[in-house]
Records
---
Amino acid sequence: MSALDPFYAMLRGESDPFRHHPEHLRELQLAAMKERFAERREQIRLLRRRADDVGVAEVARHEDMVPLLFAHQIYKSYPESFIDNGRWKHLSAWLQTLSSKRVAEVDLDGVDNVDAWMDRLRVAGHHVFSSSGTSGKCSFISQTQADQDHVTESCVKLGVYGNAMIRRDVGERPVFLMMPPGGAHRHIEPVLSAAQRLGAQTTLMFDEPVLASATISMGRMRRAIADGSAKPSEVAAFQEQAVARQRHTGKMIDRFLDKLTAQREVPVLVQGNWSLHWTLVERARQRGIADGICHPDTVITTGGGLKGTSAPADYREQIVRFYGIRPENVQNSYGMSEMIGTGPWSEVAQGYAICPWIVPFVLDKAGEQLLNPSDGVGVVEGRFAFFDLLAEGYWGGFITGDKVVVDFSPAGDTDGLQGPLIRQVGRYADLEEGEDKLSCAGTMESYVRGMINV
């Protein structure tokens, strides 16, 4: 029997994973981390190199895992020249240092851009996903089909057990998704699959896939404009494209809004992050559409921050009024693309739940010291890190850029939620602390450069 079996059972079972934890969960998690490390250190070269350098032969305590957690920046540690010059075999060699499955045998003949590279890997069973790459450089993480299936199942669990009204009407509500029909982001396919299980017919906001190559090109151009290296003709072309893109996006949002308002007589499910919900509010007001556009039993799911979108301090309250729903009809959640499963927010408990297969670590700002209470009791503030026990294609240990407050022993009415609660979330890069620096990031990137001989 594998130490991971209880966690697969919680993901795939019929019970609420946020409210029905097995006894001695902390001990079960530690046993599963020990098993994962023993397996993955033989498969992931960067992990093996790191473990050897810091002298960790096995994970016997939570503290042993801290130096083995990867900084989130490591997944964009490849030289940009690999993409600029079409060195796809080199990019695959870089990916191999971070992957548990072999990628060396993938046929790359005829690949002419990064999306074609990702498509070719997908055909070979490596479901690579990328980050937004707003800075001009994407993160790439290799996952398996099992990882994709796990994400889909976790989305269903969040929908069913994160909101009682979704659970009441499973399979009946029209679903409105503020997302494209495909693309490089991890959650597109799983959310589309989950929506088919949670609701009735699905309406998408966007009609074009999100391509990594387009995102990279846009981010680099913004960077070139900011540092003054862009040519006037390049700036003019970029601005012209931006106007055309904005015009087309406006048409897509209008079409989505029209279809949504046409369903005001029935409860629907609307999914999107906070920034997209706010974008819809602004568009409706530009068109003179009054608040209260939906049936009062409509549920909206959301998460994340504003992602650079400008909005007033009370934007969440305004969004609730716009849809014409009650605050409890909002299913807010906390998670990230590197994590299988996000935790729902509970107004009663005043915190985000954490999936039982996600082991939370609170570190100091540098990402070096574990701040978790040794006895499992207390409230801790620091940098959020985690180990995802269900990750298959990659190492599940991540150090994030988030500053959090975690209550490891919540008291009072917890809405039935078990385990630690995340009380507050912020981004170090957005706070007074300044830049988001991790002491281990430079060391890990030097490992990668040595492994791919660049």
---
Amino acid sequence: MKAITALLLGAGSRGNFIYGPYAEKYPNDLTFVAVAEPDPHRRAAFATLHGIASEQSFVSWEQALALGKIADAVIVSTQDRMHFEPAMKALELGYHVILEKPMSTLPEECISLEAAASKYGRLLMVSHVLRYSPFWAGIKNVIAEGKIGQITSIQLTENVGHQHMAHSYVRGHWRNTALSSPIILAKSCHDLDLISWLMDQDCTRVSSFGSLMHFREDQAPAGSAARCTDGCSVEKNCPYSAIKIYLETTEPNYARYISNEPTPANILQALKDGPYGRCVYHCDNDVVDHQIVNMEFEDGANATFTLSGFTRHIARTVQIMGTHGEIQGNMEEGCFRTYHFASGQCISHQFDITHDGHGGGDNHFVSSFVDEIRRFNTAQNSGLTSAAASLQSHLIAFAAEQSRLSGGKPVELSSSFIPLGQ
């Protein structure tokens, strides 16, 4: 069967470490014929690896899409505030589209993208890849089979991990709402999507509380320096030391995100010159470091989502309470247990967690996209994470941020709900 051809917009972490490797591993499924990336090293490296001609390598997405339709699909993996325009243009040109989450940083643009996918009869799949992981798919199946009765409550916790928090949301690309988006949208629309999917009904009301409690200048310990490499007197005992995170931590390998050639010398230079060497208490970050979101659904069920940057490990844990049973699970352990009230039986479900990212969701997501294109029918196929399926989680995120900024005041969702733009 003919491989699906694709144009990659943004050869950053997702482009280089998810979509590129998938095409290498499954060349009969996906082939890249063009790339747009402003960083010359990343652009050249991706083009070389995938045999892309120089005339098909572009500095910007505008240049790439100016050629018209040159492939079957476009993968938009640019920064958050650069999602809407290229995705909309690609749909207009007749491309099928993978769009990195969030769809947009503005609610009205999310709604417009969902409408455009329908208008142009194209597949627009949002990278809510967790739906495709065996762990979450397994939980969905147990619920669908009625094993725990009707869901009354879901509690989902995202343990961001203290190093990941410092890397991405204090020093990194997603540290500042004006530059990217609120963390509840940038990071946790994944989790809100899972809750929405598992509940399988409309969310009617949202409230939220959270703040930037720790990563602030007034919390800086005495003797701290502007950079970890500036002879900081507390660096060796600081859990957020950039030297520890980028030079001493190998798993996960954060260093590969701050240098195109992450040798010790290059990493150290990046810490001295770039944003990732800054003290976490002396950055320009403003996104919260912890937040809770409360949701009410149309049948009276509710859900609570907790986000925290102050955890040892990166992990998602879940508890789903039903009228006839309960599910408890840990995604990073690849295990959930189903408890049946009537029989007292406990069933363990264990999944392989050694393969690709997001618990296996990344590869399954791309594979599903390829399959959906091959059998595409505008009347039937929209994908598990289509724009229509993903829209509610985005609106919940916008409502949560609106509530948080108002001191936790509940926000009502309705068919006409459009939250305040960020």
---
Amino acid sequence: MRVLISGAGIAGPTLAWFLAKTGARISIVEKSRSLLPYGQNVDIKGSAITAIKQMGLLEQVRRFNTTEKGTQFIDAKGRPFAPLPQKGSSLSLTSEFEILRADLATILYEATKDHPNINYLFGTTIEKVISNDEDTVKVKLSNGETQDFDLLVAADGQWSKVRKQCFPAEDISVIDQDMYAVYWTVPRLPDDNDWWNIYSAVESRIITLRPDPHGTIRAMFTLMPCNEAQRKAWLEASKSDRQTQEALLRKEFANAGWQARRLLDAMDQAPDFYFQAIQQIRMSRWSNSRVVCLGDAAYAPTPLTGAGTSLAITGAYILAGELSKLDIGEHPSKALKAYESTYRPFVEKMQEIPPFIPAMAHPRTVWKIRLLQAFLWVFSKVAKVPWLSGRSAESNDDGFPLPQYLELNEKGYQ
């Protein structure tokens, strides 16, 4: 099988690793000229841990752990008042397998780049999907080449250009969470610690700091607009340039307190500034003839779920497993439908976000902040009860047992 994958992030290389073991020939196109060393924390949970184990990469993931000990909520003076159990507990917000997205992408790239059946084409995109029919999917690449493939996989992220070409607009729903997040990296100071520090400010603002294994600190600002004028300003900024986005952040967070000024002062020097409207992607169907969407391109769940990376890894495994069951020359649509029917119920469950959760985490007024702090303080005390916090996060059941594919096992899988 000749497979073209668009996107060298998490989902694409994971799929390539599993497919290559079945004899498929895979090309991966990536618009960047090299892997970008950017991206914030992601974690690996449940069935995705099993998939990473099968790839033999779990120890590498451990070696690139972010060093984050756990999560603590802090007040305006930086004093922790509600520390949660440290990582390894099922009640911790810090995963046992916490890793930077760029580090995980590098691990997956290194595990696949030398395989004789896998070819990476950096600085290359799919310029046009010329045809997608019973026989092949024909594409024109940005390097001028026109090629035929048996399957095209859109693993190019939440705003997939391949998906836009191959699926009508009515197949795609964008679910807005009325929330924005901005990320960047700042120099580490001697007073910084190895916890995920979360601070809530009035007017629905949050500032967090997280450690990384590279000697720097990862900053994140989030906001839920409080009125229509603010909502319009943030929406327009999300579609504008970095200068406009930075100006809005300085205006909105200058008086937020805690370390807001330090982070804002360092913002323009950050190499990885990223401004994001928090939105889900839901599709009425994940495939169209010989084209299939994978990971965020099909079902971006938003950072609010903490599930995007795990869904991408597990989805790649299932897609590879279903494709491995095809007979030689058989149209892939049978496998693509099986991938969706097997995985969609779990994906939809993971995409469920109670509407009150984002607003509860972003209190507007002082008294709501105090109410939230009181709740978090009580929760942190209850979470210390041994029988509640002692369970290992690694063994945490996410409710989706990883399917077993005999066709993969026969080719050396454990």
